[in-house]
Automatic annotation (TrEMBL):
Organism of provenance: Streptosporangium roseum (strain ATCC 12428 / DSM 43021 / JCM 3005 / KCTC 9067 / NCIMB 10171 / NRRL 2505 / NI 9100)
BP GO annotations: 'de novo' IMP biosynthetic process; adenine biosynthetic process
Official protein name in the record: Phosphoribosylformylglycinamidine cyclo-ligase
EC id: 6.3.3.1
Catalytic reactions of this protein: 2-formamido-N(1)-(5-O-phospho-beta-D-ribosyl)acetamidine + ATP = 5-amino-1-(5-phospho-beta-D-ribosyl)imidazole + ADP + phosphate + H(+)
Pathway listed: Purine metabolism; IMP biosynthesis via de novo pathway; 5-amino-1-(5-phospho-D-ribosyl)imidazole from N(2)-formyl-N(1)-(5-phospho-D-ribosyl)glycinamide: step 2/2
Record domain PurM-like N-terminal: where: 57-161
Gene: purM
Length: 341
């Protein structure tokens, strides 16, 4: 005789994980969330959209890539969910959308209830920071396909924006200014290169590096900064024309997506000093500047394009909210690409 448990799937552990995460998920609740006793689906009261003239629903989905492997190596799982939320909701806010709710999916080799609760607790904390609700999710146990200590996670979010307030390249004008919004570090892109550098250079995640003021592992697991509430408040307060979420592809690749065909973003590399972690990675990995530019955010996690007369109030608002920001460049005639002077 055999059983599901003998095949490697522990239903009891899954149920315990759900119980452990409930209180953490509750912290992300919004008033529009409707309870569903069955738990098969998340419910959100769409009457909240009746105040819009023409609401456009937006959606985004993403994961955190191989950053999960570092979380597993260091046995630290309480912040990787924040990374997930940041990667998803900050794509939504680029068009000016408010993130409303999110769902997550975790696949693992073995359900360890406490570990799953830590992961989901991070997702819930990320949702709280983003102002959206975590209304559902799924944890799947895949014995044989993944090792007992391995897992991966992904998520999807839905947001809303008023049609005539949607941001984007159509609003960008010659003479606009590009503002940089600081990243918290590497965020969640480029970790395959990060791991390659660690392996080639023989670096230890537990090593204290003077340049970083903490261990390499602590630096690399610094959670992705979540910009949605800051970007929404900025768009409510001044005439923001466009945003660009700086992820894989770097500043040039991502900012170009927010430019019209006849305009360029001319960026000033001397306007900021990238965080020390990027110098550490480039130095130990002997990575060329062009590859650093294409792979990492280099200290700029979000860019905002605003009219020239909005620069001072925009920087003042962001400073008040505790988000470092500076003038990164300007919009000039061109061919629709971001480039350095």
């Amino acid at each position: 005789m055999t059983s599901y448990a003998a095949a490697g799937v522990d239903i009891d552990a899954g149920e315990r994980a759900v119980e452990l995460m409930k209180s953490k998920v509750a912290r992300s609740r919004r008033p529009e969330v409707v309870d569903d006793a069955s738990g098969f689906a998340g419910l959100f009261d769409a009457s909240a959209l009746l105040g819009y003239r023409r609401p456009l629903l937006t959606t985004s989905t993403d994961g955190v890539g191989t950053k999960v492997m570092l979380a597993q190596a260091l046995d630290k799982h309480d912040t990787i969910g924040i990374d997930l939320v940041g990667m998803v909701v900050d794509d939504l806010v680029v068009c000016g959308a408010e993130p409303l709710f999110m769902t997550d999916y975790i696949a693992c080799g073995k359900v360890v209830p406490e570990r799953i609760a830590e992961i989901v607790g991070g997702v819930a904390e990320g949702c709280r920071l983003a102002g959206c609700a975590l209304i559902g999710g799924e944890t799947a146990e895949h014995p044989g396909a993944m090792g007992a200590g391995e897992y991966d996670l992904a998520g999807a979010a839905t947001g809303v924006v008023e049609a005539d307030r949607m941001l984007g390249r159509d609003r960008v004008r010659e003479g606009d200014v590009v503002l940089a919004l600081a990243s918290s570090g590497v965020h969640s892109n480029g970790y395959s290169l990060v791991r390659h550098i660690i392996k080639l250079a023989g670096l230890s995640l537990e090593a204290e590096l003077a340049e970083l003021g903490r261990t390499l592992g602590e630096e690399l697991l610094e959670p992705t900064r979540i910009y949605s509430l800051d970007c929404l408040e900025l768009a409510r307060s001044i005439d923001v024309h466009a945003y660009a979420h700086i992820t894989g592809g770097g500043l040039e690749g991502n900012l170009s997506r927010s430019l019209p065909p006849a305009l360029d973003a001319l960026l000033d590399r001397s306007s900021w000093t990238p965080p020390a972690v990027f110098e550490v990675l480039a130095g130990h990995g002997k990575v060329a500047q062009a590859d650093m530019d294409r792979t990492f955010n280099l200290g700029v996690g979000m860019a905002a394009i605003v009219p020239a007369d909005a620069v001072d109030p925009a920087l003042a608002l962001l400073k008040e909210r505790g988000l470092p920001a500076w003038v990164l460049g300007e919009i000039v005639p061109g061919t629709g690409r971001a480039r350095y002077r």
